[in-house]
Amino acid sequence: MILFMKSKLFSILLAFSFISIGYGQNKVSVSGYIRERSSGEMLGGATILIQPANAVTYSNSYGFYSLTIQRKQTQKIFVNVPGFYLDSLIWNAERDTFVSFGLTMMPSSNDVEKIDEVNIVSKKSTFADKVEMSKIDIPVNQIKDIPALFGEKDVLKVIQLLPGVQKGGEGQSGIYVRGGGPDQNLLILDEATVYNASHLFGFFSVFNGDALRSVELTKGGFPARYGGRLSSVIDLNMKEGNNQKYTGEVGVGLISSRFTFEGPIKKGKSSFMISGRRTYIDLLIQPIIYAQTGGNGGYYFYDMNAKFNYILSEIDKLYLSGYFGRDNFYASNKTGTSTSDFGFGWGNRTLTGRWNHQFNNQLFSNLSVIYSHYDLSIDAVETNGSNKFSLGYVSDINDYGLKYDFDWRPNPNHLVRYGFSAINHQFNPSAVVVAAGNEELLNKTVDIIRTNEIGVYIEDQIKFTDWKFLPGLRLSQYSVDKMTVLNPEPRFSASFNWSKSFSIKGSYAMMNQYIHLLSNSGIGLPTDLWIPATEKLKPMNSEQYAFGVAKDLKGGYSVSFEYYNKRMLNIVQYKDGASFLLQDNFDPNIPSDSKSWESQVTSGQGHSQGCELFIQKQIGKLSGWIGYTLSWTILQFDELNGGKPFYAKYDRRHDASVVAIYKIDKNFSLAATWVYGTGNAITMPQGSVNASAHQLQKVPYLWDPNVGGINNNLDYGSRNDFRMEAYHRLDLSFKFMKEKERGTQTWELSVYNAYSRANPFFYYGSLDYVDGKNVRTLKKITLFPIIPSISWSFKFK
Amino acid sequence: MRNLLKILSLIYVLTVVTGCETDTDVEPPKFVKKPSINCFLCPEDQNIYAELCYTSPYFGVLPDTDDYILDANVKLFDLTESDSAVLFLSNSSGVYKTTQNQIKIKENHQYELVVETSDGKVHKAQSTVPPKLDLSQVKFTYMKVGAPILDSNGRGPGGPGGTYEKNPFTVEFYYRGALSKDFFINPQFEAEMINKSNQIIPVEMMGRGNEDFYQGTAENAIRVYSNREFNSGFGINGPFEVNAIGGTLYSVDLAYRNFYISQGNANYSDNIFNEPMMMISNWSKDAIGFFGSYNFVTGEVYRK
């Protein structure tokens, strides 16, 4: 913050704020909030239309809207959110007015009948009309309808079903957006970065759908307000809590249970929401482990979301929200005099405090104070009599951040957003410490690496006849040790409304990323190491441009087609033969440029391009989408594959998904998803050959194939030259809801992998002795056959 | 009811756990037979060998014997001096060699090895012999031997009653001579660690690891750190200090470095935490293997 306040950038920003406050005295404005009537939850993304002025705007993620038009006109304000009844109000536009709307949700069976009426009145559609491209609002209600493994609803799994987004492999939560790695996605929960979004080694994400109000994915055409990652932004907002009445939901599944409780602290003034989950696999398998091994062991995860908010006045609101979650795997055994204990845990903690303030009808601000933490630890202790062996691995990252964002709406043709963010990262990318009979080494502390990341941005959403433009500029400054870099990041999006329902769009975005994730390609364990950009490991940079068309069709259908082209520089991978089991320096006097992880990695460049087709239907008895992506992702590293280009592991030529949800009536619904993806590109030996070895030693000897040792060398062809089998899967679910006196009871029967496709998890070679010959076969491990599950939940009125 | 639910859940978990993680055979990568050609030049060695063998399938029925190449034409060219020599088959294991003094291997000369196999394919690779490095330009600019860490339980290789020590140490190796970016340094040094009773323990100081190749900078400075530890005790106890450092300083070209690193490739995927090790060949066409060169100098570089 001090760094930032000293900069000239801050002075410019401050001056701009004062201009914003004093602007527009000869016009008249209407502003306020869009809420859901029954709960008081703010609704972001609502369309607000004023007729006959024909001025349109959208509410921001805090539900705030503002429109400024010419004075002395009687106007009618329409508010439209898909799935809600249309609301309207006559407005005598004589003076600045503050008016909030409370919208009522439609019963689901009425959607189809009402949609045409809504579109006729608003004269606008939401899909083709927006200037942003490569951005998708994930309907949280639909997430609950989509079938999932063990019936556990998962936001990230749903995001993986969208075009341009690919999953890593069977069961994994890691996502790969437009050829980018899993570290290139910025996951923000109420403004706080979530570093590891995985529970259960990646089979579930940390985001509890019950606690979420909105989820928004941006994979290109990034507005200037976002920065810090190359490939995508997944912006998740927690529910604020019902400020009208107490309500809640409990759910019982086969491997976990969950609850959500929300209600007013002071009715209409403040509210809270608390939501939690815990698995009980450990409790169920405990007797089996004890019977088989005589030991103790298990795995569990838990997470909790909590949020409190307080309305100080119509123009001031306070929010405090947090996430706390952890995974723990443990095992212990005792035989005779020997004992062993093993623990493996990882978890995130976030805390966000926010202050919304409305300076006037045109200027809205949000100040956020943010803390984020992620850690991973492995502990193993073995004792045998008086002998003791200990192993410890710790790695953590702490972020302390400050963000100040402004929305300025001087007239219907401009929406100016500007602000700044400052984050202090504290990395502890430690490594394995082994101690035999010695606790001193195990308790050794390592150097913490501190880095600062500052961003200043401004963007203006401009409307000009049938054109819309979103130019923006972000300046990002990064400092670590003696290195400081300042990078301009220009952004630009444009759209042209060919007709009321058809638009052509284009965008360009430059992004910088000052943090790397070292990830072993072979395994899905969360042994990934977050490390900062340094003088040796340069910050990552990308340029992406995209073109597309969007069309709204009758009956609530919308179609979009996009082409993207993305170049990435300074992306990082492990060197050949490198391992995450790194030794750290013994000596704290060693300068940071000798950090062992720096010597294990190498940087290169990547290029991804592809086309995405997205056909969506959000409302009506039948809803869902079809997504298809055709893409190529090629990497080039001087130190890998002999410097020759190679396919990225997650290069996916074809990726398709079909999601269909059919609401039979108010009590029954059916849902199905089908996914298909080209197999992962992996490195696999094709041949082998024996060749003479040579060792460099302090007393030299010469290479001679007639003497000395022999190595069996493997011929891999090229890196990632072999394709795993294609992945495809069908999931089904059947939902039965029944209204009870105190709420709604829901039974859900779901079937994961309905036709029991044996999708590959990983491959390995198996050597057997058959009929006097050595025979090696390639085998695949498959994790999940057909898995039926049942869950029950009850939502209180 | 609760017990029934618990039993049903248990049956479900057991079914899922046993149903999961099945393994089945899949189609392996297609095998493409390739010649493997290895040849390494060193100015200290006037016997020039080339080792030729075809690759065998990695999957399927594995052959009992190696498929040596016994009918190739192998020729070495000195591109700097326009000299050449033929390598003749010298045994049934696919080893070809020059006759004595047919061609001389010299520093900074570029050589080309040309191999024509019986299918008519011609494979070529080039290598430039690195210069012998200057030991007087080697400095150990930072050396710190930590205080011994005692085993409080009195355990160690000497058995009961002995005291086992660990001695962490850190060194900074600094080569001030010029070396082209095309070459790499590999220091193989050993230190004499001495205590107050003038007892000496030899300790491997740098080298042996695949990662210990440092690329030339062409700017007169290669600086690297090494953190290691050595054991002592049972009558030869610390604290220690460095008395002398000596050994061999190798200079190698990229192909030799890649060959050396690829030797860690003997076992595929034994460690799931490791990345696979690729063999980065410098042969044209479909051949694998390496044509590289190395050089070395030995001596003492430090004495207290």
What does this structure look like?
The complex is a heterodimer of chains A (797) and B (304). Chain A is mainly beta and 797 residues long. Chain A has a domain at 2-122: Immunoglobulin-like. In chain A, the strands form ten sheets. Chain A has a 22-stranded antiparallel beta barrel. In chain A, strands 9-16-17-12-13 form a five-stranded mixed sheet. In chain A, strands 1, 4, 7 and 8 form a four-stranded mixed sheet that branches. In chain A, strand 22 (316-335) and strand 23 (338-358) form a beta hairpin. Mean pLDDT of chain A is 82; it is low at 1-10, 18-24, 109-125, 437-444 and 582-594. Chain B is mainly β. Chain B folds into two domains: 35-131 and 254-295, Immunoglobulin-like, CATH 2.60.40; 135-252 and 298-303. Chain B has two helices and 20 strands. Chain B has helices at 2-19, 254-262, and strands at residues 22-26, 35-41, 49-54, 56-57, 60-61, 67-68, 73-78, 83-89, 95-97, 110-116, 122-128, 138-145, 149-150, 164-175, 183-194, 200-206, 214-215, 222-233, 241-253, 291-303. In chain B, strands 2, 3, 6, 7, 8, 9, 10, 11, 15, 16, 17, 19 and 20 form a 13-stranded mixed sheet that branches. The longest helix of chain B is centred in the N-terminal third of the chain and has 18 residues, at 2-19. The termini of chain B are far apart. At the A-B interface, helix 6, strand 42, strand 43, strand 47 and strand 48 of A face helix 1, strand 1, strand 2, strand 3 and strand 4 of B. Strand 48 (773-782) of chain A pairs antiparallel with strand 1 (22-26) of chain B, so a sheet runs across the interface.
